[in-house]
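Trying the structure run again after the queue cleared.
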Amino acid sequence: MARTAACTNRRQVRDVTRTRRPFPERTLHLIDIENLAGTGLPTAREVRDLRDAYASRVGIGPLDHVVIACNHLAIKAAGYCWPDARYLVRSGPDGADLALLDVIKHENVAGRFTSVAIASGDHAFTMDTSLLGAAGCEVTVVARYGHLAKSLELAAGRRVVYIDSHDTVSAVLSVLPRAGSGECA
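Done. Tokens:
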């Protein structure tokens, strides 16, 4: 009788694990392209350079999902030089931040992804970074050096990647394990 109960308990634990993560291991990349570029109107060249730097420092796996948010004036450059992404367009103050925060709040991110990379240095992501981490997601924050809110840096812990630094010892405290790249059309 005791053996049957133990087997049932193990089976229940396995079932809970399966229902929590029914998807394969993958990363959600939430990218505020304006924040990474440091301008509300990044050029196609800036987007291409950011894409290449992001791919080399963070990595994008074949099952990963990339979401890029920007204002309506920046969508041409973002769409042209970062293909195979989902694009969110929202103009106005903090428009890109709000669009990405909507994804976190309304799309069961913790249940669908094993890790999340938030490419923005804005403090607006502080609370959600903490909540995703508490839900079991590995969260990495990607930002420009000197443009990372202290609260977001603290919420990310040691998982911070500076996109514009060539010093891998100080810039890359920890990175996601995947690698990949793409070509701009």
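DSSP finds nine helices and six strands in the chain. Worth checking whether this holds up in the mutant runs.
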